[in-house]
Amino acid sequence: MKQPPGYEDPAHPDHVCHLQRSLYGLKQAPRAWFKRLHDFLLSAGFSASKTDVSLFHYSAHTSRVFLLVYVDDIIMIGNDATLVDSLLQRLSSTFKIRDLGTPSFFLGIETLTVSDGILLSQRRYMEDILHRAGMTDCKPLATPAAITQTVSPTTTLFDNPTQYRRLAGALQYLTITRPDLSYAVNRLCQFMHAPTKEHWGLLKRVLRYVKGTLDYGLRLTKSISYDVHAYSDSDWAGCPNDRKSTSGYAVFLGTNLISWVSRKQRTVARSSTEAEYKGLADVAAEVTWVVSLLRELGLHSGAPATLWCDNLGATYLAANPVFHARTKHVEIDFHFVHDKVASGEFLVNFVSTKDQLADIFTKPLPAIRFATLRDKLNVMPHTPCA
């Protein structure tokens, strides 16, 4: 461990500290802490969610309270202010807590009020990333990835791989409120083991895009519908190095985006239909989890979830078992999409490529197309309400 700032030994400035024990207690300490909190919440009348172990919910007649735990940070929300206050008092009687009131800054995410809802922003975090990279005065760009620049393996390694990994990891946390960065950041993280100068240039381009969109965040508005619908897309053999495809999906609850991902597929797809079908299986697994959580909380509308795919072959494959004879090489676990459709839990519909919102998660796009999809994903600049 390096010498703490302000306590350096002037005679031995290069010496390090020899730790006698762990700085943060025993390895099992986090589990012991969560068990204590878990037991107390159950005794206070909360029910532990089976879908998400960090979520607890409390019901009393028409009053509902939800409590979400992240280590020792807790956020509580409910439709009865009196009930929330009484539960906070019970919590403070056992644990030393500090009530910060209405959430404004939680885990680096700032909650801003806009005219039609709230905006989740990480502006301070973005400014910190730019400061660490020495790019606070860089020239902004309209997109995080160029459509003309492909990533190919080179032998000229970047001379500071630790800095590359640190910044790429920081950008990963930024995708919590910035789904428009998911594809570019996912591509950067594929070269953590041996980043080159070319990869460093790609990372700097992402930072220049961040510089131009500091005011942007994820907007959440009140929705009159609790229907779940999702968009799935894949870029067949998009990686020039291993010819694997990139899948992406966006899951909406009503009008709000609640889950998204951009990732490279594990195996090489032999056709565009196979690549799209694998992407459809990924989003089906995520939607299954979302629906399970909504049912547990009593918020599910009961309507089947709708999956939108822009490949007719994959759409037919999910609904017609005859086509399975042509896909014997596809792993069995991908075929559970058909079972979900047959049971009536999912509806798989075709959507044109023009209206495919998940297109932003699979490939670089021109500036106009990128901005259009970004707006449809509810990534908006902060405009204070009047």
Lateral arrangement of strands in the main beta sheet: 5-6-7-8-14
Distance between the termini: 50 Å
Oligomer: single chain
How many helices does DSSP assign? Answer: 10
Shape: globular
Query: Rg from C-alpha positions?
Result: 24 Å
Q: What fraction strand?
A: 15-25%
Stretches where pLDDT is under 50 for at least 5 consecutive residues are none
Number of domains: 3
Q: Please state the average pLDDT score.
A: 87
Structural class: alpha+beta
Main sheet: strands, sense, barrel = 5 strands, antiparallel
Which percent bin holds the helix content? Answer: 25-40%
- Secondary structure: number of strands: 14
Walk me through what this model shows:
There is one protein chain. With 386 residues, this protein is of the alpha+beta class. It has 3 domains: 29-101, TATA-Binding Protein; 104-222 and 368-386, no CATH class; 224-351, Ribonuclease H-like superfamily/Ribonuclease H (Nucleotidyltransferase, domain 5, 2-Layer Sandwich), CATH 3.30.420. 33% of the residues lie in helices and 20% in strands. The chain has helices spanning 29-43, 81-94, 123-133, 161-174, 182-189, 197-212, 272-297, 312-319, 336-342, 367-376; strands at 47-48, 55-60, 63-70, 73-78, 105-106, 109-114, 117-121, 216-221, 228-235, 246-253, 256-264, 305-309, 346-350, 379-381. A hairpin with a 2-residue loop joins strand 6 (109-114) and strand 7. Helix 3 packs antiparallel against helix 4 (161-174) and helix 4 runs antiparallel to helix 5. It is globular. The model has no long low-confidence stretch (mean pLDDT 87).
